[in-house]
Structures are given as C-alpha cells and as structure tokens.
Predict the 3D structure of the following.
Amino acid sequence: MDAVPQPSDVPPQFPPSDETGPDPVRAGTASPPGSVVEPAPRSLSEVVSPLVADLSSKVLATKEGSTFFYSDVLGNLDDRKEYGLGLYHRDTRFLSHYRMTVSGREPALLSSSAERAYLSYVDLTNPDLYDGRGDNALAVRQGTINIRRVRAISGRVFERVRVKNYNAHAATVTLSFSLAADFADIFEVRGLARDVRGHARPPEVDGAGVTFVHDGADGIVRRTAVSFWPAPDRVEAVGDRVETDFELRLAPHQTKVVSVTVEPIVGEERPAVPDFDVAVHELRRSYEEWEREGTQITTDNEVFDQLLTRGLRDLRALYTKTDQGWILAAGIPWYVAVFGRDALLTSHQLLTVSSKPARDTLRLLARLQGTADDPWRDEEPGKILHEIRRGEVAGAGLVPSPYYGSVDATPLFVLLYAQHFRWTGDRAFAQELAPHVRAALEWIDARGDRDGDGFVEYETRSPRGLVNQGWKDSWDAVVHEDGRLAVGPLALAEVQGYVHLAKQRAAEVFEALGDVATAIRLREEAAALKRRFNEAFWMEDERYFAFALDGDKRQVTTVVSNAGHCLYADVVDPDKAAHVARRLLAPDMFSGWGIRTMSKTAAAYNPMSYHNGSVWPHDNALIAAGLKRYGYTKSAARVATAIFDTAINADYLRLPELFCGFTRRTPNRPVGYPVACSPQAWAAGAPFLLLQSMLGISARAQDNVLTVTQPTLPPWLNRVELRGLRVGSSTISIVFRREGEITTFSLTDRRGDLRVVVEE
C-alpha cells in the first residue's frame, strides 16, 4: 500500500493529440542545445543543417580520454558536415575526412559495433570487383573477401584493417584511404560562423605517412600525424587531401593486415603511448577494474542487468582526465568537456554504486570555483562553472572559457557535497571542501538572489553567454503559456528546490563538523524558502507549480516537467504533491515512453524540440525519485517502466540524452532526437537513480545507518541483489524480493557495524 493516496490512473482529460504517428523527424529540423556561443535570440536550427532521425544508430563512437572518433557505421568520415563526424581532441576536429575503399569501390557492410566505447569493430565484404582491362572481366566475386576494421584509442587512434581472401584462388585488391583534416572547432561544427580563424598548411607527405598542420588563431599549432604500416604503395597529396593505396596480393585463404595510426598533437604535446595490443589490454583491464570497484548489482531480469552494465561502461568511457583532475564528460559528440551541472548530477545518480566520481567532481569544481567578478565569463565569487572549452575558438577569446553561466551548478555542488558525506561519512574531505561550500552558499544568498526576494535568479551578463542557464538551457526553453519568451531575471522552480535540499543536507554536514550555528541557520533558511516557494510558484487554477517567475515576478505558467524535480527536492507541501503527481502522469505530459519536458497544451510544445516537448531519461529519473519521496510508488514505477521500455528499443540498450515526445502507440518505437548525445552521462546514470528509488535506499554514514523506505519493485523485476554496497567504512550485501504486491529484503553479508533501518 502507498503511504499517501495515488494519483488516479485516469487523469483529467486534455485536448486530444494532433499527432498522427512518429514519422522519424524527416520533415523536421533539430539542433544541438545552446552553449556559450548561442546566437541569441536565434535558434541553432537556423545555423545547423537538419539531420535524419535516430542518428545514434548510424554512428560509431569510440573514446578514451579527451579523444574520440565519431564515424559512420562503415568506420568512415565523409564530407556530410551535418553529421558532425570526425576525430576530435580537445574540442578540435583533427580528421574531417577518412574513407576506405576496396579496388575503388565502397565495401558492403556486414556488421559494426562500438558497444565497448574504447574499441569498435566493422566487418565488411567486397562487391564484385573487375580487372579494369578492356574486357572488364570479373576478377573477384562479391562476398569472398572479408575486411575487418578494428579501432581503439589510447593517446592516439589505432586501426588495424585485416583483409582475408576466402577464394580458392589468388586475388588482388587495392585498399585505399583518403584523408583530410579541417581542424574545425567543435563550435564551428555545431554551426558557429566566425571571421577570425587560423590557416592550414599543405599536407606534409612522406613514404610512410602524412602530417596535417594548422596554425591556430589562438597561437597554437595543431597537427594530425598519420602513419601506415606497411608503407603504402602510393601516397599523394591532392589539394587538401591525401590519398594512399595498398596493393594486396592474397593467396587462397591468405590474410594481410594494414595498420593506420592517427595522433592528434596540440603544440608540442606528444605523450608516450603504448602499441595497439598493449593499449587494448590496458583499456580492457581499466574497464574491468571500474566495474569491480563499485557495488555489484544483479537482478532476475537479464535485460535490466545489461542496461546497468551498459550505463556503467558508458560512464567509464566518459570518465575523463583533465589538467584539473578527473571528471565525467557530459556526452559524445558535443560535450566531451568539463560541464559542472552534468558531472554533478551524474555523480549524484551514481552514489549507490561508487562515491569516487562525486569526490573527483567536487574536488575539480572546487579548484575552479569562481573568485572574480567577470561579466565576460558570467563569473562571480563562489559560483560553480558551467563549462570549459579548449579549442581554437575559446583559446582565441571568441567565447568565454571557463564559463560560469549556470544557475543550478552552485546549489547542486552543495547538494552533492552533502550527499557524498551521507554515503561516505568522510569528515576530512568534508572539512577540506567546507570553505568552498561556504563560498557557494554565500553566492546563493547574495549574488544568486539578484533582487533580494529570497529566490535564486539568473540573467546573462556575457555577450556570448547563455540566455537560459538552467538545465533547459536552449534559447527558447523558458516560454509563457502563449509562446512568448520569458524575460528575466528568471527564477526557475527546480532551482529553488535544489537550494532547499542543498541547505537541508548541508546542515547535516556542518553539524557533524561541529558548526551547529551554521546548521541551524541553514535549516531555518530551507524552511523559509519552502514557505515562500509554495506561495509564489503555486498555480491554483492549474493545481501545479509555475515553470518560473519572470523579471516582473509574474508566473511563467507553462506546465513543464521541472515541478517533478521539486518533488525530489522535498520543497513541495504535502497537500500539493498529489496534484503535481497526477498532472505529471496525465496524457499531456506522459507520452508512454516517459514524461515530456513540456505539456502538449502549451503553445510552444513541439515533440521534436530539444526542451519543449521531448523526453529526457535523467529528467524522468529525478521525477520518479521525487514521486517515490512523497509516497507515490506506483507512479514512480510507471515512469521507471517507461524508461526501461525505451532502453529495450535503443541500440546497445544505451539510453540517449533525449528522444522525441511523440505519444506511444502499438507497435511503434521511441523516435530518436537527431543530434542527441550518445553515450551521454546523466542518461547513462538514470537507471541507477531509478533503481535506488525503487529500492527506497538512502544512507546516513555519519549515523552509521542505511535506511530502506517502501521498497517497491515493478512487475518486470522480482529480485535485486546489491553486493558490496558501501556506506562509510562498512559494506553490506542485501537482496530485495518481490512477492505479489510486497517487496521484502534480507541481508546476506555485512562487514562493519552498519545498521539497516526501515523507515516509513
């Protein structure tokens, strides 16, 4: 039984859908989200070419560190700029064209996979090949030559191309590569037009390789060094491209291998790297250690197990070493960079598995915390940054980097600090970061509250900054019900929730550190904020919370998903929670595949847009956790089930950053958003937060307690086992079982003196 009444399964009726079905967005346009270069008030759809839908199924993403190769399913990079394909390193495209042919023809695809992000495989075969003489006789029948491309990244790109002749007779084929490097900045690839740029030198060719060189407008020389083994029979520069040929004479059933190595070089940077076999071995071991170090989770649902494994491996792929330390990069291809909000939320999602990403993220962001008042960067003392870019555009000062235009990264920093303490009880680390947390709290109360009304607002000061600075940061994300753009300073509903929960939880840390006065003050401030929020943001006619308060303190009455985050943040009065929960699951918000970002009743609703009607897995995970917090376990399970069903339909069971908000109909599938990142950090972390919510577990390491509140497994999940779950200095193993409508649990192992407490 639920602790409080459930929202009705037959919610209020809203205007019927005018959707006729999810034709995969071929008629629409889509663009990456806003970033610091967003040309407000224009949409990036004006400057980025439209893409076909379901792009994730048409690319292979291979990554390690700050280098990633984003190719088509054949393993090639072609000249269709709208795909954003390329070899990238530190926000620069070091290869823009890379195409392999067999005797002048495109090979046929058999299969391809980048299921493990550090390694990709492409199996190809030959079409009919002709001898090229006057009679043009058939020389090699189709499907008799196998070409396998294996690619790995460790400091540089390694590619081995194995060519095997399955004919009973000898065969000769020409394996050809053409290459080019435009050294485009990631912002250019996304559509930024700029006048200031560096210049490329002619390719430097020798017998065994080629080097592309670019003198950047930021004063940095960037090189792409390509080497071949064995040396090609022909290597020639043709304009800005280089073409190579390998004449392979294959005896019956003979195999030959061609190796290609591509090294992106910034300045004089040339770190030592291993060879191919050593690199693959070290990468495989690194992934295995990443999976072993955290909580081991197994269930009776093999597909759900695979989803968790997929998320964990993708997060390892995104775990990136920077000059400032380790952090989870936000996503491939657009956000292989430091992003404060994304890393904070993802680390928060992972605390039941490992506290290491949270620790590394907090330490890195503390080092880069704002110290100056710099309008160009939207920087202020105590503020946590939004993003860091390292390409030519940022280096030349055309965009601000580091950039601090995020209104929620600072309260999320405080919240993760407190949650990390809840799971680890690490007083030394809490003491180390306490000055940074105090500075963040001071920013929240002073500069974050721009007009002194008790709410945190934002308004960009940078001419190259973000117009919107919450997690819905596209230029058109915050709109009134009639479609008018909201004018700031804007106070977003969920940000007030984050501040509320951050202060509640930070009070526990300061109390444990002996600063009782600060703990009392933070609890009083959180309680006062909750009262103000429920008065100022509540829309009685909608029985729901406003999206935001605009610059005139008028409610932005558009119904959006953000109120679900307010449930998670415990800022909603109990008498209002039932109404919020009911509306979130109403047909205008719930698509069947998940909760939409915006109601279908809003003038700005567009299921193919980035924030105005799409579905985001991380958004749904936070909402499900919020529903569970207020006792709506069935509603939470319904959201979790929808996201699980979405994952089943995704390549590699990889949840995308977002997908289109079309209504679920039988037998359709979720419609992909064309330029969604995949893998993407907080989408990969969403299943872990969903599972934590279903199990109802939370920690108070400072009290040596693990709490279990209303564990409720859905019908598709009957058994969940957590082994090696760490709380403070203790570890436990615990099994949850579903028996009818009841979920029970039992301890199978305990090391340490941790107590497990059941809470209502």
DSSP finds 15 helices and 35 strands in the chain. The CA atoms of residues 154 and 274 lie 8 Å apart. Residues 516-536 form the longest helix (21 residues). The chain has two domains: 58-275, 294-739.
